[in-house]
Amino acid sequence: MWHNKKVVVVFPAYNEEENIGQAVADFRSIEAVDQVIVVDNNSVDRTGERAAAAGGYVVKELTQGYGAALIRGLKEAKKANADLIILAEPDGTFSSRDILKLLAYESDFDLVCGTRTTKELIWENANMGWILRIGNIVVAKALEFLYSGPSLSDCGCTLRLIHSAALERILDKLTVTNSHFLPEMVILSLEAKLRVIEIPVNYGSRIGVSKITGTLQGTFKTGMRMIGLIIGYKFRR
Questions:
Q1: Cα–Cα distance between 62 and 119 in angstroms, integer?
Q2: Fewest C-beta in 10 Å: which of 50, 101, 126, 232?
Q3: Edge-to-edge strands of the sheet including 84-87?
Q4: Is residue 119 over pLDDT 60?
């Protein structure tokens, strides 16, 4: 609990058996966290088994896709009567301690997003080379400009917090089931006049292989999808 508010962490997971148990244990060790929900997105390894053994609540999402897993996780957190919902990754890239950074802003903001582009917090072997870092910043600044948003520097950071009451205003509008889900969540929040802020978080090396930015082709495809979504949403009317 955090100031009498129930805190639930959501992990999207596809073939993450290598670190899922440790990730669940790490995030559950934060005193403010009440529950960790793991959305097993058709894993063919022991992801679900290891998550459950570590104390995670495991649900299966059959629609394949990063966004589909996160949407399912948000819905499950609502069912669990969460007051504050935190999205994260179980691959070792995020520090469980940064949850406290997000929580520190929850009384003033509806959506608190992390950014992985702060150079001082990008650690050795993290998948955030200068090309990816600059690309993230450029795309985020386009979103900031087109939607009159707050200062933004990262469109692809999973680590974020949203109030359950704020989620109610955008949940039924979330449509992206693939890798470009995260900017849609920010756009819909800004259009709903939610209070949004971005804060720097730690970004470390990944355990296992990224399904989204593990290759140059995957990174480029995701970036183009994000750009297309940001422009498309602006002019869809």
A1: 37
A2: 232
A3: 57-60, 35-40, 7-13, 84-87, 160-163, 111-115, 196-200
A4: yes
Architecture of the domain whose range is 7-235? Alpha-Beta Complex (3.90)
How many angstroms separate the CA atoms of 181 and 203, rounded?
A: 20
Question: pTM score, two decimals?
Answer: 0.94
- Look at residues 160, 11, 2, 28 and name the one whose alpha carbon lies nearest to residue 82: 2
**Distance between CA atoms of 54 and 35, rounded to whole angstroms?**
12
Residue-wise burial string across 62-101, b where 16 or more C-beta atoms lie within 10 A, e elsewhere: eeebbbbbbbbbbbbbeeeebbbbbbbbbbbbbbbebbeb
Query: At what angle are helices 216-235 and 130-146 packed, to 10 degrees?
Result: 10
Tens of pLDDT, residues 42-65: 999 999 999 999 999 999 999 999
Q: Is the dihedral of CA 85, 79, 10, 73 positive or negative?
A: negative
Backbone dihedral angles phi then psi of residue 37, each to the nearest 5 degrees: -100, 125
User: Phi and psi dihedrals of 25, rounded to 5?
Assistant: -65, -45
**R_g (Cα) of the chain, nearest Å:** 16
Which tokens in the block code for residue 126?
């993290």
218 confidence band (pLDDT: 50, 70, 90): confident
Q: Where are the domains of the chain?
A: 7-235
Distance from C-alpha of 22 to C-alpha of 26, rounded to nearest angstrom: 6
